[in-house]
Amino acid sequence: MEEDSLGLAVFKRTADDEKHALSIEDKLFLKIMDEEVFQDEFNSWVAPLPFNLLGHLCQTIENKPKNVAVTADIQQMFHCFIVREDHRDYLRFLWYRDNDPSKDVVEYRMRVHVFGNSPSPAVATYGLRRAAIKGEQQHGSDTRRFVEREFYVDDGLISLPTEEEAISLLKRTQASLSESNLRLHKITSNSIDVLRAFPVEDHAKDIKVHDLEKRSVWEAWRDSLQDLQQLHIPRAYTASSPSKAKRKEICIFSDASTKAIGAVAYLKTTDEDGQINIGFILGKARLAPQTEPTIPRLELCAAVLAVEMSELIVQEIDFKPDAMIFYCDSLSKHLSSSTPTGSQDQRSCMNLTKPTVDSKMSSRWLTLTQTQRSDHKL
Length: 378
Prior knowledge:
Elements: H1 24-36, E1 38-39, E2 45-47, E3 68-74, E4 81-83, E5 92-96, E6 105-109, H2 120-139, H3 141-149, E7 151-152, E8 155-160, H4 163-178, E9 184-189, H5 192-196, H6 214-224, E10 247-256, E11 260-270, E12 276-287, H7 295-316, E13 323-328, H8 331-338, H9 344-352, E14 362-367, H10 370-375
Helix pairs in contact: 2-3, 2-4, 3-4, 7-8, 7-9
């Protein structure tokens, strides 16, 4: 133990000994910004362009989990910081005079820092922290700590023990930053009480608050079981037995989109009295490949899926249908206009148009009109 303690008192130790030191580029950047950033008469921060410097790396600090989580955003953060006038020539661009395409193209200069410029995040982050320092004395040191340690560029994330603390911190931070023409908005939280404490215009859009504790998830699932009382699945396909029907048809609809293909099969029976009954048999869907095939090819794939379903259905049911009718979305038209003669797609189309399951059973392909598609959309 004595050997391990040797040398510990030789050099003076401080609380910062274990922290990472700033790089030369970081020190140079901070020196430039400390000397040249200022607040103008309109309370906007004016900053230079830090030439020949690496982009500033914002350090992410671990956010200890607490009960109430909140996030917020700085509105148009880059545009909140004005470029020094003698540096604006470096941010020139060409555009139509008065934003009118019929007029000549002229040269403009950006007055504010822009998205896409390498130093903009560092400049904006520095300006945001300067604004927090300026408001620290009046609005509390925790507002400065929130901005300095819990923000990544324009997004802030923090968790606090209670709703009251979260509301207080956000409101005081809003007031502090507003003195520098910075607006903290798009507030979200897992607490309804926190959201109610702020006007709707300060909320993020489409907020959905979910209680994701295990107990609440379990209770929600348990309570949802009572909805099963309303679920009724008929034992038979149709109200009357298919064996007593005068005519039995299997109708299979197929369709496709850029995302997926699908097919669904129904049994259609006609009684002696002419009464028609329809029952669901089977439905299948498949995601489209990432290679993004053409719509005609996807329509063909959906038709192939429909044929495979028909073969499976005929094998499994204990009666023989009088007809097998396939409904598709103008498959033949698509293929005839876009498929080269002799291609694999055209040969597949020819195979599909043949009697598919049984030579004694009528089989045909029908295309749907726009009105019919809206009624039978998969």
